[in-house]
Write a structure and sequence with these properties.
Elements: H1 3-12, E1 17-18, H2 27-38, H3 43-63, E2 70-75, H4 83-92, E3 96-103, H5 106-119, E4 128-129, H6 132-142, E5 147-151, H7 164-173, E6 180-186, H8 191-197, H9 204-219, E7 229-236, E8 241-248, E9 252-256, E10 259-263, E11 268-275, H10 279-288, E12 291-298, E13 304-311
Parallel strand pairs: 1-11, 2-3, 2-5, 3-4, 5-6
Antiparallel strand pairs: 6-13, 7-8, 8-11, 9-10, 12-13
Length: about 300
Amino acid sequence: MNKFLKDVLQGLQSSPKYLDSKYFYDKKGDELFQKIMASDEYYLTNAEMEIFSKQSGKIADKVLTEAKQIDVVEFGPGDAVKSIHLLKELMQRHSISNYFPIDISENIIKVLSKHLPVQIPHLRLKGFAGEYFEMLSLVNEISSNQKLVLFLGANIGNFKFNEMPRFCKRLRCLLSAGDMVLIGFDLKKDPAKILAAYNDKAGYTKEFNLNLLKRINKELNGNFKINNFQHYATYDPISGACRSYLISIKQQSVKIEEAEINFEKNEPVFMEISQKYSVKEIDEILLECGFEVMSHFFDSDKYFTDVLLKCS
């Protein structure tokens, strides 16, 4: 049984049901996520883009106080539209040895490998398609250079509040003293603004969630009737958890390969969490995980922060 099938069946045979958000990103999912990021409601893209377009020089200054030459490793780079500003800044300073993008989507790695070296001449790029930590272990095998790991776009928010420290501790275990990490965090703010970002008027987030059902139909011989599910998002301003669900609008059965999955009317399938944090919560958690907080870089509205860390 392949891992995609195993994970889908495990999630849909659980109570409550869930699907793993890492499987959103096939070619169509990548395209839809680009549309989400470009939507008016999705403030996160513009906030972090402002940081990278205006402060990459400051970020590079801070990084290069700790290292003269580095490998840049990027988790989930997407089209690298934000990180390209920092990559160019570091290249101009002759400070990058290698760029290693790591993404679950083979499509993303192919696109980056083709287009990024054209945009940044002489950039040494080797992409890895797979799980972040498995691929980071491979990077460690081929290069012992001091590293800067980028984890941008508030992807850290895809972990539940109590899961995020486990991720950070595991990341720390794969890095050496003196290595650095730059992580993007979405900050707690007006609840209405947050909720709108995950329920855009154009319906791209809805399509993005439903596309996973289409992917299951295509790749796992599923027979989901897409119109039998609707997208639902909710935000809790106390915990900072923004959650997305698909709701079964009728009692129904779905086949995936040889398995039959039953859904009750109005039964939810948990799809994704987008966790929001306060600066105080961020600093306390990262300190416990073995990192020293070097700097916070904020957008002008303080909607978002990119936090530069050093492995202590």
